[in-house]
Amino acid sequence: MDTLSYVAQSAFPLIWLLVAAVGALIRTRHVTSRRERLETWQRWWAIWALGFGSLWMTVAFVAAPDVMATAIGFHRTPFEFEIAFANLGLAVMGFRAASPSASARERITIGLGAGMFLWGAVVGHLYQWFANGDHAPGNTGGVLVNDLLIPAVLIALAWRSQRTATTERTAATPALA
């Protein structure tokens, strides 16, 4: 595989983070409310980074398992089907987190749930990289960044939103004299 092809395949997963960040930046460019800005960022991150990013992985692992096996540096196994449906679960959670009725607490929980799978995947990718020299584009690079950042950013945004709401409620409550 030539260098350009390797870099392109390795970096492709980052498209979901890029779409989420650029979309949220554009959407919030004139927003002055911290609460509204956080809500918009949470929705874009949940829909694009977690939702569509995971849905893409579902489709890729179901529709092109041989290609995905090569991309991650393994032979095709039934495990890929399981990964596809684990990603479908993540996509459903991402779309739920984007709902206007989703609370900050629910979004934190969704981020933690996604983190358990994705951060575990990071450990597996790193193990394969260092123990077995697996430098396949689907094992290193963009996938590591995605697996680390998607849940971490979702949790951080929801936590910040929760703190902002608490601060606003406290500020709005009149002090007892």
Tell me the radius of gyration: 18 Å
Return residue spans where pLDDT drops below 50 for at least 5 consecutive residues: none
Helix content: over 70%
The span between the termini is: 73 Å
Helix/sheet category = mainly alpha
- List the secondary-structure elements in sequence, H or E: HHHHHHH
Mean pLDDT over all positions: 94
The major pleated sheet works out as:
none
Shape: elongated
Question: How much of the polypeptide forms β-strand, as a percent range?
Answer: under 5%
The beta-strand count equals 0
**How many DSSP H or I helices?**
7
Structure, described:
The chain has 177 residues and is mostly helical. Helices cover 79% and strands 0% of the residues. The protein is built from seven helices and no strands. It has helices spanning 3-11, 14-27, 34-63, 65-72, 79-97, 104-132, 142-172. The longest helix has 31 residues, at 142-172. The protein is elongated and about 65 Å long. The model has no long low-confidence stretch (mean pLDDT 94).
Write the layout of secondary structure elements.
Layout: H1 3-11, H2 14-27, H3 34-63, H4 65-72, H5 79-97, H6 104-132, H7 142-172
Helix pairs in contact: 2-3, 3-4, 3-5, 3-7, 5-6, 6-7
